[in-house]
Amino acid sequence: MSWDLVLAVVRLIVAVLIAYAIVFVAALVNIVFERRVLGFLQDRLGPNRTGWQGILQSVADAFKMMGKEDFAPTAADKTMFTLAPIMVMIGAVAIQVVIPYTKGWTDQNLNVGLIYIVAITSFTVLSILLGGWASHNKYSLVGALRTAAQMVSYELPMILALLVVAMAAGSLSLNAVVAAQGSYRWFVFTMPFTFLLFFIASVAELNRGPFDLPESESELVAGYGTEYSGMRFGMFFLNEYAGMTIMSMVTVTLFLGGWQGPFANALVIHGVALVPLVWFLVKVYALVFVLVWIRLSVPRLQVDQLMGFAWKVLIPLGLVNILATAAVLLWAPHWKLAMAVYSWLALIAFVGLFDTLLRWRLKRQRRRVAVLT
Amino acid sequence: MTTAFLTNWIYVAVFIVAGAAMVVGILLMSRLVYPIHPSPEKYSTYECGIEPVGDSWHPFAVRYHIFALLFLVFDVEAIFLFPWAITFRRLGTSGFVEVLVFIAVLAVGLAYAWLKGALEWV
User: To 5 degrees, how large is the angle CA A122–CA B108–CA B72?
Assistant: First the structure.
């Protein structure tokens, strides 16, 4: 009995250490990865001096940041100012309780996994609001409120996409979601439209790519982080870059079949399969590459476009998508095939019509302006 | 069943504390290393290099409040929809119609906000 208890405690400690390691390694790797990939895509070198091909660049940056003076302005609310960076990492660490890294290793297979993901990621919004308000600086406050409005708005399409995943998998537990995607019926193939909604929302949740308004330096200096310095700023930065990997982990688990791939049972040690871990990481980093690629290719949106896109496009489409998927699953004779057909048609219609609709709207606006002037 | 439930949420509690503890550890570690050179200019609030004008904690644009209200409505809706999403096969047509009505009511609310211009960011 007591031996079991010791084992359970050891397992808990190992799980926490794995979560720490993933956050640190992911953040440090992603910074170098992003800079090198941006360099490659823009036909220049990127950092390549520290260590072999510059892989130690972000380690060096991290140590440099540790030695920077970390102060709070006199006007700031000191307690809240320190509390905000402390809270910001909670989401990144605690979300890993439910992530199935590989066959045979999930820290805890919560039966409410999908809701847990939504709930725990909101720690980031809270800490950003707290930090921006506590700074007692106008740029910080505007940046924080803007970030909160953006993250809250894009949380809804994300939840609506998660609902469709829950319907198709028949469960909220992430292991069940992975199991429902067996034999290469990954949800990205069977419901690409839902994947697109989820992916757009998750890029916005990460404050990245075309949705990086919170740190639009041309308008807001540094947004919610204006008054932060040293390691307290480093924590926000760390969370942002670790978030790329962690959000990709969630996306891979929900839509890209999680750890599944060929030779899943080739190398199993104490019930933990090693080959699926490789597939998982390959898929995660393929997605991180896509995130960097999007950031490079798409220009930043305006605030009104950003909010309008969430409320007028993604949320109505998400609601319709839920009802349509439910109808297909309930009444179509071959529901698996029917779902895939419906979703691909919806995707093609969305991608095909979106540009036309935007052009039509622009033309109408121009006409209205012409009438006014 | 009860033990599994307990272990589940012990993990969650430990991970939440661990997430905060990690940052506290790093901040304390960097506290040992970094220099402290105070000066009044450094500790003043940043505002493009001029003296800060007025207070930053003033009443803020009301449209954030409208979006917060709308978010609350749809977030609560999602909580109602999750149980249905799991059991909708068993509930069948009647469950589908009920959810249809439920979503229609909220969609009318969204359409109303849209027509009233609450979704415009001016």
Answer: 20
- Angle A128-A253-A262 (CA atoms, 0-180°, nearest 5)? 150
Number of A/B CB contacts below 8 angstroms equals 208
User: What is the average pLDDT across A265-274?
Assistant: 76
Has residue B56 got a pLDDT over 80?
A: no
**Domain parsing of chain A, residue ranges:** 3-368
Q: Residue A199 has what pLDDT?
A: 92
CA dihedral A332, A342, A192, A310 (to 10 degrees): -110
Mean pLDDT on B46-71:
77
Helices assigned H by DSSP within chain B: 2-33, 40-43, 63-115
**Per-residue pLDDT for A192 more than 80?**
yes
Enumerate residues 44 to 103 of chain B having a beta carbon within 8 A of any beta carbon in chain A.
44-47, 52, 56-57, 60-61, 64, 67-68, 70-71, 74-75, 78-79, 81-82, 85-86, 88-89, 92-93, 96, 99-100, 103
Answer whether residue A29 shows pLDDT above 70: yes
pLDDT at A67: 83
ipTM above threshold 0.95? no
Q: Look up residue B13 and give its two tokens.
A: 């509690």
User: B3-116 has which fold?
Assistant: Methane Monooxygenase Hydroxylase; Chain G, domain 1 (1.20.58)
Q: What is the pLDDT of residue A122?
A: 84
User: If you average pLDDT over residues B29-34, what whole number do you get?
Assistant: 85
A335-346: string of b/e by CB count within 10 Å (b at 16+)? beebbbebbeeb
A257 contacts A180 by C-beta, under 8 angstroms: no
- The set of long-range contacts for A325-328, using a CB threshold of 8 Å and a minimum separation of 24, is A325/A164, A325/A167, A325/A168, A325/A191, A325/A194, A326/A167, A326/B88, A326/B96, A326/B99, A327/B96
Put simply, whether A156 touches B (Cβ < 8 Å) is yes
Q: Where are the domains of chain B?
A: 3-116
